[in-house]
Design a protein that fits this description.
It contains four helices and four strands. It is elongated and about 95 Å long. Strand 3 and strand 4 form a beta hairpin. Helix 2 packs antiparallel against helix 3. It is an alpha+beta fold and 132 residues long. A two-stranded antiparallel ribbon has the order 1-2. Strands 3-4 form a two-stranded antiparallel sheet. Helices cover 39% and strands 17% of the residues.
Length: 132
């Protein structure tokens, strides 16, 4: 009868990471990947080059990116969702400010504008044109 070699004590003391640790590692890797892609997707020349990209965590709220990159970003976000079983869910708030994508210094940004629906409707009802 042949005796099988025994693993040395150092090999026995190393444990494989738990599945929770592996999932967390994959999630962090995906988070870094999409954050880097967002950072690289903000180049622009005019306001029309930009659009809002508010997908919540791990992307910051009030994020604006180049329209030309939106498909690639959405695909990467789907990959993040598929790989990250336990992810943070939150929606980006939208009221009472209106978010407008703008190009500043060749970088897509978000400009906040006050949006008071009641005020706008009151002025419209009274026939007041605020632009004058």
């Amino acid at each position: 009868m042949t005796e099988l070699p025994r693993p040395n004590s150092a090999a026995r003391s190393r444990k494989a990471p738990s599945s929770a640790v592996r999932r967390r590692s994959v999630a962090r890797s995906q988070e870094r990947k999409i954050q880097a892609l967002v950072a690289d997707s903000r180049s622009c020349e005019t306001d029309d080059d930009c659009t809002i990209f508010d997908y919540g965590y791990p992307i910051q709220c009030l994020t604006s990116v180049a329209k030309s990159e939106i498909t690639r970003l959405r695909l990467q976000y789907r990959e993040y969702e598929a790989d990250c079983e336990f992810r943070v869910y939150y929606d980006c708030p939208s009221e009472p400010m209106e978010r407008k994508p703008v190009c500043r210094n060749n970088r897509c940004e978000v400009e906040l504008q006050t949006h008071d629906l009641l005020r706008d409707e009151t002025f419209e009802y009274l026939g007041i044109d605020e632009s004058q």
